[in-house]
Write a structure and sequence with these properties.
The chain is an alpha/beta fold. The protein contains 9 helices and 15 strands. The chain is globular.
Length: about 300
């Protein structure tokens, strides 16, 4: 009897050990997966939470589209475009995407419906494949909104309105998109309304490195952003092409960037008062009007290179 039962008992114990070991491994796998898509890293920003490890070099290209916005974010095999510039600059954008080997955009994020942010979307979307298109939650009241919606319909990509904080993984980085804290007021007659203050704001975190893209925020939008207190960021894409607002200095004091990038043009340059503020604060500043497309790479450990 003992001779028969002993192997059975050993076999049962061995099987039990295997089950326990498998369960532990499975738990570790779940924890690792959760960490890889975790909340924003808190190195220089308190925008939502715990650490996020960097798995690859992050590349942010603020493209020269004149006084307009078109920003490519790449990490690993992922690529996201924030705004699309003008229709006239779309061929240049597509050329840059091709040069960088980008044939697929995981997402296009439109911060607001001004011409210099939406007009290039259709041509760009016809030149590369597009995943999801993210739009602000409000419906604009002018032809630029109609241009945007027509482009979205023509491309046939999935669309999501950003009505609350949205987190997107981009390779080893995390992009969090914040909706405006301002109520929409459409313009009447020749007044264009407060589209600029309705801009979506995006915070990008790659390990210890952080970027803030402030759309075209003006006074009311900046005040709403400051009230939300999302913390500090290393790199700031200045709001509204370097236009000086009464609270621009407050924004700089809050964000405390090391680098600032302005999307302006020779014809419509950044305000001199804004440039003076940046200089007096010792913030390294780049302008598309002078530097062309500005490319910032980060390794997740506080090391930046600018081209």
């Amino acid at each position: 009897m003992k001779t028969i039962l002993l192997p059975s008992v050993l076999t049962a114990l061995f099987a039990l050990c295997l089950l326990v070991l498998a369960a532990c491994c499975k738990t570790n796998e779940v924890e690792t997966a959760a960490g890889s898509v975790g909340a924003l890293e808190s190195g220089r920003t308190n925008a939502s939470g715990s650490a996020l490890a960097s798995t690859s070099t992050l590349r942010v290209a603020v493209m020269d589209v004149g006084k307009g916005d078109c920003i490519l974010i790449r990490s690993g095999e992922s690529a996201v475009l924030i705004d699309t510039g003008y229709k006239s600059t779309a061929p240049s954008v597509l050329s840059q995407l091709k040069a960088q080997g980008v044939s697929n955009l995981d997402a296009i994020i439109i911060t607001h419906y001004d011409r210099d942010h939406v007009e290039g979307m259709r041509a760009i979307g016809e030149g590369v494949s597009v995943g999801t298109i993210y739009l602000p939650e409000y419906e604009g009241a002018d032809k630029n909104y109609d241009i945007c919606i027509s482009a979205v319909e023509a491309l046939g990509a999935p669309v999501q309105r950003v009505a609350q904080e949205l987190a997107l993984g981009i390779g080893g980085a995390r992009l969090t998109v914040f909706p405006s804290g301002v109520a929409y007021e459409p313009g009447t007659g020749k007044e264009e309304g407060n589209d600029n203050d309705m801009s979506l704001v995006a915070a990008l975190v790659n390990g210890r490195d952080s970027f803030l893209f402030a759309g075209d925020l003006e006074e009311a939008g900046i005040d709403a952003y400051l009230a939300a207190n999302h913390g500090q960021f290393d790199v700031l894409k200045m709001p509204h092409h370097g236009r000086r607002s009464s609270n621009t200095e407050d924004l700089l004091d809050n964000v405390r960037p090391k680098l600032a990038i302005i999307t302006d043009s020779e014809k419509d340059p950044a305000d001199k008062k804004t440039l003076k503020l940046l200089k007096s604060a010792g913030i390294e500043t780049y302008r598309t009007s002078e530097d062309g497309t500005v490319v910032v790479e980060s390794d997740g450990n506080g090391n930046y290179s600018v081209a």
